Amino acid sequence: MIGKLKAAWMVVWWxxxxxxxxxPISIAGLVGPSGRLAFRLCQGWTWWATVVxxxxxxxxxxxxxxxxxxxxxxxxxxxxFDIPALMLGLGLQFRWIIKKSFVYVPLFGWALWFARHVxxxxxxxxxxxxxxxxxxxxxxxxxxxxxxPEGTRSDDGVIREFKSGGFLLAVxxxxxxxxxxxxxxxxxxxxxxxxxxxxxxxxxxxxEPIETAGADRKQLDALVxxxxxxxASRLDPEYPRKI
Length: 243
Fold this sequence. Notes:
By secondary structure, the protein is α/β, with parallel strands linked by helices. Helices cover 42% and strands 16% of the residues. The mean pLDDT is 89.
């Protein structure tokens, strides 16, 4: 019963949050030449979701990250709360790579489209890569692209195998990869089939940027393994540890 009440609480507040932010985000995305204001409003949207669910962020930033550069941000994917955690915690402007089906979600998906996030058809890899390349070419200076290379959320916090699409995007456009490790998110939302949340902390650890300049498809597998190892090396399945 408590789980159902928590799930209902989250759904109601998310719906209200969406109704409040949908119009401002849509208008900002349509009239803003860079999409920066729309992203800021999306941050406000996701911030409220963390507040009402009792989610706290612990950020371990990396001084090697240059906010004036564009990156392909890659993170492990533990739950839906990875999205607000990354949007609020990284201190970077970016556009999500999102599967096409989300564009049909009322208010939520529409607002993401207006905010210039990138929707791809996973059933057509060539078309998806062309869409990502086109998005990379349109990026304003200092705006990045974010992707979950696992392609789906983990059920238990364990990192799955990485898909190559985001790495091809980085190599073809000469963009450095920024590995980010998420800890604790799956404890906040342990069942990806339910919205029954558990208040608690989420930790972000930002790794060293990985340059791709001069790389080609022959180095793709090594790049995937290097990025996965960088993310996995900071994974803490016991986070948050009890003292």
